[in-house]
Amino acid sequence: MKKGTKLYSVLKLKCPRCQIGNLFHNPGLFVFSGILDMPNACEHCKQDFKLEPGFYTAALWISYPIVLVVFIPLILLGFSLDTIHGFFKFLYPLVIVFSFILQIPLMRVARAVLLNMTIDYTTKW
Phi and psi of 22, rounded to 5°? Predict the structure, then answer.
């Protein structure tokens, strides 16, 4: 993954402007304390992360299509295999557990996507 791309910033949870500073106090996708705790600005380039009040509410609209892309194929697979082997009874609880496990990383990735939609990478800061 090449530094300077939006995908790099989103998946590594780095500042979209410099791609050096962390977006969250606790880096990583699977964090269970301080899930959405973000600094007010990047520690490296000083890019403000609190762009306006209620800015991260839009992250809900970003995480929704991500959830659909992940879970609709699983549900369709369950329905197609249900007629053959009764597989849906096994897949349904698995999808529910999987959705709870992915909730935390999806919230963080949605915030990173939202910031990358509004802030561009630059080497001059």
Answer: -85, 145
